[in-house]
């Protein structure tokens, strides 16, 4: 399975990509996680990436394409992958298609997860992420057993720099202007399905499975 999850910030792409990746035994490839790893290295490149991310702007395509390409070449992505947050514009989508073509591969499906802006602001303001293993929580909807501590690895939970309300509004604007046109792009290619991203995470997962398989295969 080679799947793209599209959607605005906070739509639940990361949450769903992780769950489906575990179900199918394929990796979640999240361009945001790849970029945050570069930022943590404290290099010139990391500082440059952070200067865009902290303002809610897209990082230049050349860096993102290099990171995603290197990740998709890893052994574990051979049987398939779930792209989360990539592609973000038509240039990235075309680069992805060309890269796959070199190996005679194609995307199987693109699922757009649709969530209204008011719900997004609620979700993002409560999101907490583990510094160590990237596991995700929500202070109200999916709280950890002990506040501030990851259930899975005991790591520290933090709030992302770009989750400040003003930056979230900028990210929503960038999504509307730059990423939303990708829906029409993938629709023209016959790859697009749109699912409602509001509801419990297991309900949204079933909707995605139905969009991909035609039937909802319940999670094991
Ligand atoms: P990125 O890390 O990709 O962030 P994003 O797309 O803005 O998406 P988020 O991670 O905020 O949300 P999500 O949809 O994954 O939702 P989540 O599952 O976390 O990008 C960050 C920045 O990096 C960009 O602004 C840009 O600068 C740069 N970047 C990244 N990719 C790039 C690219 N390709 N090109 C250029 N620049 C790029 O869920 C959110 C919260 O809601 C969580 O707390 C979760 O627990 C909760 N939640 C999830 N599902 C539900 C549900 N059904 N009900 C209630 N709560 C839920």
Tell me about this structure.
With 220 residues, the protein is an alpha/beta fold. The protein has one domain: P-loop containing nucleotide triphosphate hydrolases (Rossmann fold), CATH 3.40.50.300. Helices cover 46% and strands 15% of the residues. It contains nine helices and eight strands. The strands form two sheets. Strands 2-3-1-4-8 form a five-stranded parallel beta sheet, with helices on both faces. Helix 6 packs across helix 7. The longest helix has 15 residues. The radius of gyration is 17 Å and the shape is globular. The model has no long low-confidence stretch (mean pLDDT 93). Bound molecules: BIS(adenosine)-5'-pentaphosphate (AP5). The site of BIS(adenosine)-5'-pentaphosphate has 36 residues, from helix 1, helix 2, helix 3, helix 6 and strand 6.
Brief descriptors of the model:
single chain; 220 residues; alpha/beta; Rossmann fold; 5-stranded parallel beta sheet; 3-stranded antiparallel beta sheet; 8 strands; 15% strand; binds BIS(adenosine)-5'-pentaphosphate
Fold blueprint:
Elements lengths: L1 E5 L6 H12 L3 E3 H10 L3 H10 L7 H12 L8 E4 L5 H12 L7 E6 L2 H9 L1 E4 L5 E3 L18 E2 L6 H15 L1 H8 L3 E5 L4 H13 L7
Parallel strand pairs: 1-3, 1-4, 2-3, 4-8
Antiparallel strand pairs: 5-6, 5-7
Helix pairs in contact: 2-3, 6-7
The protein binds BIS(adenosine)-5'-pentaphosphate.
BIS(adenosine)-5'-pentaphosphate binds next to helix 1, helix 2, helix 3, helix 6 and strand 6.
